Amino acid sequence: MTATTAPDRTRLAALLAAERAAFTERNPRSAAAHAESRHLLGGVPMTWMAKSLAGFPLYLGRASGARVVDLDGHELLDFCLGDTGAMAGHSPAPTVAAVTRRYAELGGATTMMPTEDAEVVAAELASRFGLAQWSFALSATDANRWALRLARALTGRPRILVNSFSYHGSVDESFIVAGPEGPRPRPGNVGPPVDVTETSRVAEFNDLAELERQLAFGDVAAVLMEPALTNMGIVLPDPGYLIGVRALTRAAGVLLVNDETHTVSAGPGGCTRAWGLSPDVVTIGKAIGGGIPIGAYGLSAELAERLRRRTELDLVDTGGIGGTLAGNALSLAAARATLTEVLTDSAYEHMTALSTRYTAGVQELITTCGLPWTVTQLGARSEYRFTPVRPRNGTESQRATDVELEDFLHLYLLNRGVLLTPFHNMALMCPQTTAADVDRHLTVLGAAVRTLTS
Ligand code: PMP
Protein backbone atom coordinates (compact mmCIF):
# COMPACT_ATOMS: atom_id res chain seq x y z
CA MET A 1 0.00 0.00 0.00
CA THR A 2 1.62 3.26 -1.10
CA ALA A 3 0.30 6.78 -1.42
CA THR A 4 -0.89 5.92 -4.90
CA THR A 5 -2.14 2.37 -4.52
CA ALA A 6 -5.10 1.00 -2.64
CA PRO A 7 -4.70 -2.17 -0.54
CA ASP A 8 -4.69 -5.42 -2.50
CA ARG A 9 -8.34 -6.45 -2.16
CA THR A 10 -7.76 -10.18 -2.49
CA ARG A 11 -5.12 -10.14 0.19
CA LEU A 12 -7.28 -7.91 2.39
CA ALA A 13 -10.27 -10.25 2.04
CA ALA A 14 -8.13 -13.26 3.02
CA LEU A 15 -6.61 -11.47 6.00
CA LEU A 16 -10.04 -10.31 7.13
CA ALA A 17 -11.38 -13.85 6.93
CA ALA A 18 -8.45 -15.07 9.03
CA GLU A 19 -9.05 -12.37 11.68
CA ARG A 20 -12.77 -13.25 11.74
CA ALA A 21 -11.92 -16.89 12.35
CA ALA A 22 -9.50 -15.94 15.12
CA PHE A 23 -12.13 -13.67 16.70
CA THR A 24 -14.71 -16.47 16.68
CA GLU A 25 -12.25 -18.90 18.18
CA ARG A 26 -11.17 -16.42 20.84
CA ASN A 27 -14.65 -15.45 21.99
CA PRO A 28 -16.82 -18.55 22.51
CA ARG A 29 -18.81 -17.11 25.43
CA SER A 30 -19.75 -13.96 23.50
CA ALA A 31 -20.74 -16.13 20.54
CA ALA A 32 -22.87 -18.36 22.77
CA ALA A 33 -24.54 -15.43 24.55
CA HIS A 34 -25.46 -13.96 21.20
CA ALA A 35 -26.72 -17.27 19.85
CA GLU A 36 -28.96 -17.62 22.92
CA SER A 37 -30.47 -14.12 22.58
CA ARG A 38 -33.83 -15.14 21.14
CA HIS A 39 -35.93 -12.27 22.45
CA LEU A 40 -33.75 -9.36 21.50
CA LEU A 41 -34.61 -7.53 18.31
CA GLY A 42 -31.69 -8.18 16.01
CA GLY A 43 -30.16 -10.33 18.74
CA VAL A 44 -28.82 -7.27 20.57
CA PRO A 45 -30.03 -4.89 23.30
CA MET A 46 -29.94 -1.92 20.92
CA THR A 47 -30.03 -2.42 17.17
CA TRP A 48 -26.78 -0.57 16.47
CA MET A 49 -24.94 -3.21 18.49
CA ALA A 50 -25.70 -5.50 15.56
CA LYS A 51 -22.82 -3.78 13.76
CA SER A 52 -20.50 -6.67 14.30
CA LEU A 53 -17.16 -7.52 12.86
CA ALA A 54 -17.56 -11.26 12.78
CA GLY A 55 -21.22 -12.22 13.08
CA PHE A 56 -21.66 -11.57 16.79
CA PRO A 57 -20.86 -8.69 19.13
CA LEU A 58 -18.26 -8.83 21.85
CA TYR A 59 -20.02 -9.05 25.21
CA LEU A 60 -18.90 -7.02 28.19
CA GLY A 61 -17.69 -8.68 31.36
CA ARG A 62 -16.43 -5.72 33.39
CA ALA A 63 -14.57 -2.45 32.92
CA SER A 64 -12.37 -0.10 34.86
CA GLY A 65 -10.56 3.07 33.83
CA ALA A 66 -9.18 2.66 30.32
CA ARG A 67 -9.79 -1.09 30.21
CA VAL A 68 -12.67 -3.42 29.49
CA VAL A 69 -12.70 -7.15 30.05
CA ASP A 70 -14.88 -9.10 27.66
CA LEU A 71 -17.05 -12.05 28.59
CA ASP A 72 -14.29 -14.49 27.68
CA GLY A 73 -11.93 -12.73 30.07
CA HIS A 74 -9.67 -10.83 27.65
CA GLU A 75 -8.54 -7.47 28.87
CA LEU A 76 -8.78 -4.81 26.16
CA LEU A 77 -7.21 -1.36 26.05
CA ASP A 78 -10.27 0.75 25.48
CA PHE A 79 -9.85 3.64 23.05
CA CYS A 80 -13.57 3.54 22.23
CA LEU A 81 -14.70 4.57 25.70
CA GLY A 82 -18.34 4.02 24.84
CA ASP A 83 -17.99 6.39 21.87
CA THR A 84 -17.36 9.20 24.38
CA GLY A 85 -19.91 8.13 27.03
CA ALA A 86 -16.97 6.87 29.11
CA MET A 87 -14.49 9.65 28.31
CA ALA A 88 -14.06 10.07 32.07
CA GLY A 89 -12.88 6.43 32.16
CA HIS A 90 -15.00 3.49 33.24
CA SER A 91 -16.48 3.95 36.71
CA PRO A 92 -14.16 6.69 37.98
CA ALA A 93 -13.96 6.57 41.78
CA PRO A 94 -15.54 10.00 42.52
CA THR A 95 -18.52 9.20 40.29
CA VAL A 96 -18.91 5.74 41.84
CA ALA A 97 -18.92 7.34 45.30
CA ALA A 98 -21.47 10.00 44.32
CA VAL A 99 -23.76 7.53 42.57
CA THR A 100 -23.54 5.02 45.42
CA ARG A 101 -24.33 7.72 47.94
CA ARG A 102 -27.30 8.99 45.94
CA TYR A 103 -28.71 5.61 44.93
CA ALA A 104 -27.85 3.36 47.86
CA GLU A 105 -27.44 5.64 50.85
CA LEU A 106 -29.75 8.62 50.32
CA GLY A 107 -32.06 6.86 47.87
CA GLY A 108 -34.34 8.62 45.42
CA ALA A 109 -32.81 8.24 41.98
CA THR A 110 -35.93 9.70 40.43
CA THR A 111 -38.57 11.53 42.42
CA MET A 112 -39.71 14.56 40.33
CA MET A 113 -37.93 16.72 42.95
CA PRO A 114 -34.82 18.82 42.27
CA THR A 115 -31.58 18.24 44.15
CA GLU A 116 -28.90 20.75 45.07
CA ASP A 117 -26.52 18.99 42.67
CA ALA A 118 -28.44 20.49 39.73
CA GLU A 119 -27.31 24.08 40.33
CA VAL A 120 -23.71 22.96 40.86
CA VAL A 121 -23.72 21.11 37.53
CA ALA A 122 -25.42 24.01 35.73
CA ALA A 123 -22.93 26.50 37.19
CA GLU A 124 -20.03 24.28 36.13
CA LEU A 125 -21.40 23.99 32.58
CA ALA A 126 -22.07 27.74 32.50
CA SER A 127 -18.49 28.54 33.44
CA ARG A 128 -17.09 26.01 30.97
CA PHE A 129 -19.22 26.97 27.95
CA GLY A 130 -20.01 30.61 28.72
CA LEU A 131 -23.80 30.16 28.52
CA ALA A 132 -25.89 31.30 31.45
CA GLN A 133 -28.93 29.02 31.76
CA TRP A 134 -29.02 25.22 31.63
CA SER A 135 -31.60 22.48 31.52
CA PHE A 136 -31.24 18.71 31.56
CA ALA A 137 -32.28 15.80 29.40
CA LEU A 138 -31.38 12.11 29.42
CA SER A 139 -29.34 12.00 26.25
CA ALA A 140 -27.61 14.31 23.83
CA THR A 141 -30.28 13.44 21.28
CA ASP A 142 -32.97 14.76 23.60
CA ALA A 143 -30.93 17.86 24.41
CA ASN A 144 -30.75 18.54 20.67
CA ARG A 145 -34.46 17.89 20.20
CA TRP A 146 -35.46 20.32 22.93
CA ALA A 147 -32.97 22.93 21.74
CA LEU A 148 -34.46 22.77 18.24
CA ARG A 149 -38.01 23.08 19.56
CA LEU A 150 -37.01 26.14 21.54
CA ALA A 151 -35.28 27.60 18.49
CA ARG A 152 -38.39 27.17 16.36
CA ALA A 153 -40.57 28.66 19.08
CA LEU A 154 -38.29 31.65 19.61
CA THR A 155 -37.69 32.50 15.97
CA GLY A 156 -41.07 31.51 14.56
CA ARG A 157 -39.27 29.78 11.70
CA PRO A 158 -39.79 26.14 10.75
CA ARG A 159 -36.50 24.74 9.43
CA ILE A 160 -33.23 23.51 10.87
CA LEU A 161 -29.94 23.57 9.00
CA VAL A 162 -27.30 20.90 9.53
CA ASN A 163 -24.03 19.98 7.84
CA SER A 164 -24.05 17.16 5.34
CA PHE A 165 -23.10 13.80 6.90
CA SER A 166 -23.13 15.23 10.39
CA TYR A 167 -24.63 13.20 13.22
CA HIS A 168 -26.55 14.61 16.17
CA GLY A 169 -28.29 11.50 17.49
CA SER A 170 -31.69 10.35 16.28
CA VAL A 171 -32.94 13.89 15.65
CA ASP A 172 -35.48 13.79 12.82
CA GLU A 173 -34.41 17.08 11.24
CA SER A 174 -30.77 16.03 10.93
CA PHE A 175 -31.00 13.16 8.43
CA ILE A 176 -30.43 15.25 5.33
CA VAL A 177 -27.42 15.25 3.05
CA ALA A 178 -26.28 17.48 0.21
CA GLY A 179 -25.69 16.15 -3.29
CA PRO A 180 -25.32 17.24 -6.89
CA GLU A 181 -29.09 16.91 -7.37
CA GLY A 182 -29.80 18.96 -4.27
CA PRO A 183 -30.66 18.01 -0.69
CA ARG A 184 -31.95 14.49 -0.06
CA PRO A 185 -32.76 12.27 2.91
CA ARG A 186 -29.75 10.45 4.27
CA PRO A 187 -29.89 6.91 2.85
CA GLY A 188 -31.44 4.35 5.21
CA ASN A 189 -33.43 6.84 7.31
CA VAL A 190 -36.08 4.82 9.18
CA GLY A 191 -39.69 6.07 9.18
CA PRO A 192 -39.24 9.84 9.10
CA PRO A 193 -42.36 11.70 10.32
CA VAL A 194 -42.20 13.96 7.26
CA ASP A 195 -39.80 14.26 4.36
CA VAL A 196 -36.62 15.75 5.88
CA THR A 197 -36.22 18.07 2.89
CA GLU A 198 -39.37 19.84 4.15
CA THR A 199 -38.06 20.34 7.69
CA SER A 200 -34.40 20.95 7.05
CA ARG A 201 -31.75 22.60 5.00
CA VAL A 202 -28.21 21.39 4.52
CA ALA A 203 -24.82 22.85 3.72
CA GLU A 204 -21.40 21.25 3.56
CA PHE A 205 -19.12 21.95 6.51
CA ASN A 206 -16.57 24.64 5.61
CA ASP A 207 -18.83 26.09 2.87
CA LEU A 208 -19.83 29.60 3.92
CA ALA A 209 -21.19 30.55 0.50
CA GLU A 210 -23.67 27.66 0.59
CA LEU A 211 -24.61 28.43 4.18
CA GLU A 212 -25.34 32.02 3.19
CA ARG A 213 -27.42 30.85 0.25
CA GLN A 214 -29.47 28.49 2.43
CA LEU A 215 -30.02 31.07 5.18
CA ALA A 216 -31.23 33.58 2.59
CA PHE A 217 -34.46 31.58 2.26
CA GLY A 218 -35.36 33.17 5.60
CA ASP A 219 -37.00 30.06 7.05
CA VAL A 220 -34.17 28.63 9.18
CA ALA A 221 -34.64 28.76 12.96
CA ALA A 222 -31.28 27.28 13.92
CA VAL A 223 -28.03 25.94 12.59
CA LEU A 224 -27.25 22.76 14.53
CA MET A 225 -23.59 21.89 14.13
CA GLU A 226 -20.50 20.39 15.65
CA PRO A 227 -17.66 22.97 15.63
CA ALA A 228 -15.59 20.15 14.12
CA LEU A 229 -17.27 17.14 12.54
CA THR A 230 -16.54 14.00 14.54
CA ASN A 231 -18.91 11.40 13.19
CA MET A 232 -17.48 11.01 9.70
CA GLY A 233 -13.89 11.04 10.73
CA ILE A 234 -12.73 14.30 12.26
CA VAL A 235 -13.13 17.28 9.94
CA LEU A 236 -11.62 20.47 11.31
CA PRO A 237 -12.92 23.92 10.45
CA ASP A 238 -10.93 26.00 7.97
CA PRO A 239 -9.45 29.18 9.46
CA GLY A 240 -12.24 31.75 9.64
CA TYR A 241 -15.07 29.29 8.93
CA LEU A 242 -16.61 29.34 12.42
CA ILE A 243 -16.30 33.13 12.59
CA GLY A 244 -18.13 33.23 9.27
CA VAL A 245 -20.86 30.88 10.54
CA ARG A 246 -21.43 33.13 13.55
CA ALA A 247 -21.54 36.27 11.41
CA LEU A 248 -23.97 34.76 8.89
CA THR A 249 -26.28 33.29 11.53
CA ARG A 250 -26.34 36.57 13.46
CA ALA A 251 -27.06 38.58 10.35
CA ALA A 252 -29.93 36.24 9.45
CA GLY A 253 -31.39 36.12 12.98
CA VAL A 254 -30.70 32.38 13.08
CA LEU A 255 -29.76 30.70 16.34
CA LEU A 256 -26.45 28.87 16.44
CA VAL A 257 -26.51 25.58 18.35
CA ASN A 258 -23.10 24.02 19.02
CA ASP A 259 -23.43 20.30 19.67
CA GLU A 260 -20.41 19.65 21.92
CA THR A 261 -21.26 16.02 22.70
CA HIS A 262 -18.07 14.75 21.02
CA THR A 263 -16.10 17.97 20.57
CA VAL A 264 -15.86 18.24 24.35
CA SER A 265 -12.66 16.29 23.68
CA ALA A 266 -11.14 19.67 22.68
CA GLY A 267 -11.04 20.83 26.29
CA PRO A 268 -13.07 21.27 29.48
CA GLY A 269 -15.36 23.74 27.68
CA GLY A 270 -15.25 21.93 24.34
CA CYS A 271 -14.45 23.84 21.16
CA THR A 272 -16.68 26.65 22.39
CA ARG A 273 -14.14 27.65 25.02
CA ALA A 274 -11.00 26.34 23.31
CA TRP A 275 -11.71 28.39 20.18
CA GLY A 276 -13.53 31.35 21.76
CA LEU A 277 -16.88 30.66 20.05
CA SER A 278 -20.13 32.34 21.03
CA PRO A 279 -23.09 30.14 20.15
CA ASP A 280 -26.62 30.89 21.36
CA VAL A 281 -27.06 27.33 22.59
CA VAL A 282 -24.72 24.47 23.53
CA THR A 283 -25.94 20.89 23.69
CA ILE A 284 -24.09 18.02 25.29
CA GLY A 285 -24.54 14.55 26.76
CA LYS A 286 -22.58 11.30 27.05
CA ALA A 287 -19.31 12.04 28.90
CA ILE A 288 -20.57 14.47 31.52
CA GLY A 289 -22.44 11.77 33.45
CA GLY A 290 -19.41 9.46 33.77
CA GLY A 291 -21.47 6.69 32.15
CA ILE A 292 -24.82 7.52 33.79
CA PRO A 293 -27.30 8.81 31.16
CA ILE A 294 -27.61 12.59 30.99
CA GLY A 295 -28.01 15.32 28.43
CA ALA A 296 -27.94 19.09 28.86
CA TYR A 297 -28.53 22.26 26.90
CA GLY A 298 -27.41 25.75 27.80
CA LEU A 299 -28.89 29.03 26.56
CA SER A 300 -27.35 32.47 26.47
CA ALA A 301 -28.78 34.91 29.00
CA GLU A 302 -30.37 36.85 26.17
CA LEU A 303 -32.10 33.79 24.75
CA ALA A 304 -33.24 32.65 28.18
CA GLU A 305 -34.79 36.07 28.71
CA ARG A 306 -36.57 35.87 25.35
CA LEU A 307 -37.91 32.50 26.42
CA ARG A 308 -39.02 33.76 29.81
CA ARG A 309 -41.15 36.40 28.13
CA ARG A 310 -42.96 33.83 25.97
CA THR A 311 -45.40 32.86 28.68
CA GLU A 312 -47.76 31.17 26.24
CA LEU A 313 -45.22 28.40 25.64
CA ASP A 314 -45.97 25.36 27.78
CA LEU A 315 -42.58 24.39 29.16
CA VAL A 316 -44.13 22.83 32.24
CA ASP A 317 -46.58 20.23 31.06
CA THR A 318 -47.25 18.76 27.65
CA GLY A 319 -45.64 21.38 25.42
CA GLY A 320 -43.27 18.88 23.83
CA ILE A 321 -40.23 19.39 26.04
CA GLY A 322 -40.30 16.59 28.54
CA GLY A 323 -38.74 13.46 29.96
CA THR A 324 -39.99 12.20 33.31
CA LEU A 325 -36.53 11.12 34.36
CA ALA A 326 -34.76 14.18 32.91
CA GLY A 327 -32.89 16.09 35.60
CA ASN A 328 -33.10 13.09 37.91
CA ALA A 329 -31.07 13.01 41.09
CA LEU A 330 -28.82 10.13 40.03
CA SER A 331 -27.75 11.71 36.72
CA LEU A 332 -26.99 14.97 38.44
CA ALA A 333 -25.03 13.39 41.28
CA ALA A 334 -22.97 11.57 38.63
CA ALA A 335 -22.46 14.72 36.54
CA ARG A 336 -21.44 16.80 39.55
CA ALA A 337 -18.72 14.35 40.54
CA THR A 338 -17.60 13.71 36.96
CA LEU A 339 -17.29 17.36 36.05
CA THR A 340 -15.80 18.68 39.27
CA GLU A 341 -13.54 15.75 40.20
CA VAL A 342 -12.76 13.71 37.09
CA LEU A 343 -12.85 15.74 33.86
CA THR A 344 -10.69 18.46 35.37
CA ASP A 345 -8.23 20.78 33.65
CA SER A 346 -5.31 18.57 34.66
CA ALA A 347 -7.10 15.44 33.38
CA TYR A 348 -7.53 17.18 30.04
CA GLU A 349 -3.83 18.07 29.92
CA HIS A 350 -2.96 14.40 30.39
CA MET A 351 -5.54 13.17 27.87
CA THR A 352 -4.55 15.73 25.24
CA ALA A 353 -0.83 14.98 25.61
CA LEU A 354 -1.54 11.28 25.08
CA SER A 355 -3.68 12.02 22.06
CA THR A 356 -0.84 14.10 20.64
CA ARG A 357 1.51 11.14 21.20
CA TYR A 358 -1.02 8.83 19.51
CA THR A 359 -1.48 11.19 16.55
CA ALA A 360 2.26 11.65 16.07
CA GLY A 361 2.75 7.87 16.18
CA VAL A 362 0.06 7.20 13.59
CA GLN A 363 1.45 10.01 11.41
CA GLU A 364 4.90 8.44 11.59
CA LEU A 365 3.44 5.11 10.51
CA ILE A 366 1.62 6.80 7.62
CA THR A 367 4.84 8.49 6.51
CA THR A 368 7.12 5.49 6.97
CA CYS A 369 4.81 3.05 5.21
CA GLY A 370 3.61 5.53 2.57
CA LEU A 371 0.00 4.94 3.56
CA PRO A 372 -2.63 6.95 1.67
CA TRP A 373 -4.17 8.04 4.99
CA THR A 374 -4.48 11.13 7.13
CA VAL A 375 -4.74 11.42 10.90
CA THR A 376 -6.50 14.26 12.68
CA GLN A 377 -6.54 15.22 16.35
CA LEU A 378 -9.16 17.12 18.30
CA GLY A 379 -7.82 17.43 21.84
CA ALA A 380 -8.20 14.04 23.53
CA ARG A 381 -9.58 12.42 20.37
CA SER A 382 -7.74 11.30 17.26
CA GLU A 383 -8.82 9.50 14.13
CA TYR A 384 -7.23 8.21 10.96
CA ARG A 385 -9.02 8.22 7.66
CA PHE A 386 -8.29 6.32 4.47
CA THR A 387 -7.55 9.28 2.23
CA PRO A 388 -4.25 11.02 1.48
CA VAL A 389 -5.88 14.46 1.52
CA ARG A 390 -7.54 15.70 4.70
CA PRO A 391 -11.31 15.92 4.01
CA ARG A 392 -12.83 19.39 4.32
CA ASN A 393 -16.43 18.29 4.68
CA GLY A 394 -18.65 15.33 5.51
CA THR A 395 -19.20 14.23 1.92
CA GLU A 396 -15.47 14.13 1.17
CA SER A 397 -14.86 12.24 4.38
CA GLN A 398 -17.69 9.81 3.69
CA ARG A 399 -16.07 8.96 0.34
CA ALA A 400 -12.97 7.84 2.22
CA THR A 401 -14.89 5.04 3.94
CA ASP A 402 -13.43 1.58 3.35
CA VAL A 403 -15.50 -0.87 5.37
CA GLU A 404 -13.37 -3.92 4.60
CA LEU A 405 -10.11 -2.22 5.53
CA GLU A 406 -11.68 -0.74 8.65
CA ASP A 407 -13.09 -4.12 9.72
CA PHE A 408 -9.72 -5.76 9.19
CA LEU A 409 -7.87 -3.18 11.28
CA HIS A 410 -10.48 -3.21 14.04
CA LEU A 411 -10.44 -7.00 14.23
CA TYR A 412 -6.67 -7.23 14.06
CA LEU A 413 -6.44 -4.79 16.97
CA LEU A 414 -9.25 -6.44 18.91
CA ASN A 415 -7.72 -9.90 18.57
CA ARG A 416 -4.59 -8.43 20.14
CA GLY A 417 -6.31 -6.59 22.96
CA VAL A 418 -6.97 -3.10 21.57
CA LEU A 419 -10.48 -1.70 21.13
CA LEU A 420 -11.23 1.16 18.74
CA THR A 421 -14.65 2.78 18.26
CA PRO A 422 -16.96 0.82 15.95
CA PHE A 423 -18.21 2.89 12.98
CA HIS A 424 -14.97 4.92 13.22
CA ASN A 425 -11.23 4.69 13.57
CA MET A 426 -11.64 6.97 16.52
CA ALA A 427 -9.38 6.74 19.55
CA LEU A 428 -10.21 8.64 22.68
CA MET A 429 -8.05 9.07 25.76
CA CYS A 430 -9.43 9.06 29.30
CA PRO A 431 -7.73 10.13 32.53
CA GLN A 432 -6.51 6.56 33.16
CA THR A 433 -5.05 5.96 29.69
CA THR A 434 -1.26 5.69 29.80
CA ALA A 435 1.57 6.34 27.37
CA ALA A 436 2.23 2.59 27.38
CA ASP A 437 -1.37 2.01 26.22
CA VAL A 438 -0.87 4.43 23.34
CA ASP A 439 2.40 2.76 22.38
CA ARG A 440 0.81 -0.67 22.51
CA HIS A 441 -1.84 0.47 20.05
CA LEU A 442 0.86 1.86 17.76
CA THR A 443 2.82 -1.39 17.88
CA VAL A 444 -0.23 -3.48 17.00
CA LEU A 445 -1.41 -1.05 14.30
CA GLY A 446 2.10 -1.11 12.82
CA ALA A 447 2.00 -4.90 12.73
CA ALA A 448 -1.44 -4.82 11.07
CA VAL A 449 -0.20 -2.46 8.39
CA ARG A 450 2.91 -4.54 7.74
CA THR A 451 0.78 -7.67 7.47
CA LEU A 452 -1.35 -5.91 4.93
CA THR A 453 1.49 -4.51 2.87
CA SER A 454 4.13 -7.23 3.04
N1 PMP B 1 -24.49 14.60 19.14
C1 PMP B 1 -23.36 14.08 18.66
C2 PMP B 1 -22.32 14.98 18.08
C3 PMP B 1 -23.17 12.69 18.68
O1 PMP B 1 -22.05 12.19 18.17
C4 PMP B 1 -24.16 11.88 19.24
C5 PMP B 1 -24.01 10.37 19.30
N2 PMP B 1 -22.94 9.81 18.74
C6 PMP B 1 -25.31 12.47 19.74
C7 PMP B 1 -25.44 13.84 19.69
C8 PMP B 1 -26.39 11.66 20.36
O2 PMP B 1 -25.99 11.08 21.53
P1 PMP B 1 -26.96 10.03 22.21
O3 PMP B 1 -27.07 8.88 21.23
O4 PMP B 1 -26.27 9.64 23.46
O5 PMP B 1 -28.26 10.68 22.41
Automatic annotation (TrEMBL):
Gene3D superfamilies: Aspartate Aminotransferase, domain 1, Type I PLP-dependent aspartate aminotransferase-like (Major domain). Coiled coil: none annotated. Pfam families: Aminotran_3. Its cofactor is pyridoxal 5'-phosphate. InterPro entries: Aminotrans_3, PyrdxlP-dep_Trfase, PyrdxlP-dep_Trfase_major, PyrdxlP-dep_Trfase_small. Keywords: Aminotransferase, Pyridoxal phosphate, Transferase. GO terms for molecular function: pyridoxal phosphate binding; transaminase activity. It comes from the Bacteria. Belongs to the class-III pyridoxal-phosphate-dependent aminotransferase family. This is Aminotransferase class III. It comes from Saccharothrix espanaensis (strain ATCC 51144 / DSM 44229 / JCM 9112 / NBRC 15066 / NRRL 15764). The lineage of its organism: Bacteria, Bacillati, Actinomycetota, Actinomycetes, Pseudonocardiales.
